[in-house]
Amino acid sequence: MLDLLGYATQFPDIKEELDLRFGASRLRLSAKTAFCSTLGFALQDFLLAHDGELPHDISELKPFCRSQADDDMLQRYELLHSGNIRDYPQTEPFIAEKDAPRTGQYDAGFKINVFGYSYESFNIAGESGTGDLHGLPTERLKDPRELPSPAADRLRRQYPQ
After folding, report:
1. Choosing a second label site near 54 at 20 to 30 A (CA), which of 18, 40, 44, 150?
2. pTM of model > 0.85
């Protein structure tokens, strides 16, 4: 959950519209970062439960989200590939923002892979960044049958095939 009051205290001297836009952009970036982490974990769990098969529709990730995600939030993102994760490089992005901003002074577009997310910020400084999900190592997602218990047992019970 985002700390809105904490964000408000970071910008006590808002005097111009530019200050307000910058503060709002930082809040948007934080919200998107949190949601991309949620989607990344949901993708990991989905892949483990489906023997590495990618979802056919972004809405299939909803039951796997660890925090609340409504349909409107999910529909802001799109799947980039189909098939099995074993057919793609480890760093391949599988989810991206639909209509990610390409212009504007303080916007960012996110892409999500199995092990984290990346974003490209569209501002004067040209900032970009990445984030790790601190999830399962690559080899475990490549072959879910080799997952150690209790993670494998929990996922197999929760999402039987």
Report:
1. 150
2. no
